[in-house]
Specification:
The chain is globular and about 55 Å long. It has one domain. It contains eight helices and no strands.
């Protein structure tokens, strides 16, 4: 390998890291701005949040079947349950020779995201919605929604993890639509149960999607040393 060829992998890694940092900063600015509005009790936002919670919980009380569905979904979309299944998916893909580093990327990204969402909650310390006749209860702080953030993290990561295995366009479109619907239903679940304000779930989705996409920007086209051009003829699919 010539000196010029040896410099190329280093430059490539630097570009990837640069992309990841830039994307991460953009997400941090957006989420921080929303958190600032929440912390400062920005009146238009607070009034919109409060009105939405009142209307949503009224609908839930009037429809017992809807309430039961929402409570069941709340259990199914619990972050612990999601990450157990996601970890098993990572383990399965890790056993595939060409998806080893991709599986490791997915697992580490999800674990970092899970902890980051908790950290932001303790930084912002927003109280949960106060509902006169609550339909459900949840402990801890409100912003961002942990269910929304982790559903977004898990769904987005799983789509990216299995992307190389989805050869047909229809399958890829279906996977993206299914992931988006899963996140949407989880967000609505939190609002209609009255345990999160709309701005909480928006913050959770922004944090979750931004984290995964920033992480993927730093990972995509990455190759471990054993797969550099002078020692292998192919790389992990992206």
């Amino acid at each position: 390998m010539t000196s010029e060829e040896s410099v190329q992998p280093a430059r490539s890694r630097l570009r990837r890291v640069g992309r990841a940092v830039v994307y991460g900063l953009v997400v941090a600015v957006v989420v921080t701005a929303l958190a600032f509005l929440v912390r400062s009790q920005f009146d238009p936002l607070i009034r919109a949040d409060t009105s939405a919670i009142r209307t949503a919980t009224d609908v839930t009380r009037e429809h017992p079947a809807l309430r039961q569905f929402l409570l069941t979904w709340q259990l199914l979309s619990n972050p612990t349950n999601l990450y157990v299944l996601a970890a098993l998916a990572c383990l399965w893909t890790w056993r595939r020779r060409q998806l080893t580093t991709r599986a490791l990327w997915a697992f580490v990204t999800m674990m970092v995201g899970w902890n980051l969402a908790l950290d932001v909650k303790y930084i912002v310390q927003r109280a949960r919605p106060i509902v006169a006749d609550p339909v459900s209860h949840a402990p801890g702080y409100s912003f961002p929604s942990g269910h929304a953030a982790n559903a977004t993290i898990a769904a987005t990561t799983m789509v990216l993890l299995f992307w190389p295995l989805m050869r047909r366009t229809g399958v890829r479109v279906g996977a993206v639509v299914a992931a988006a619907l899963f996140v949407l239903v989880t967000c609505l679940d939190r609002i209609f149960l009255g345990v999160h304000f709309p701005s909480d779930v928006v913050g959770g989705v922004l944090l979750g999607a931004g984290l995964v996409l920033s992480s993927y920007a730093g990972y995509v086209d990455w190759r471990p040393p054993a797969l550099e051009p002078d020692s292998a003829t192919r790389k992990e699919p992206t």
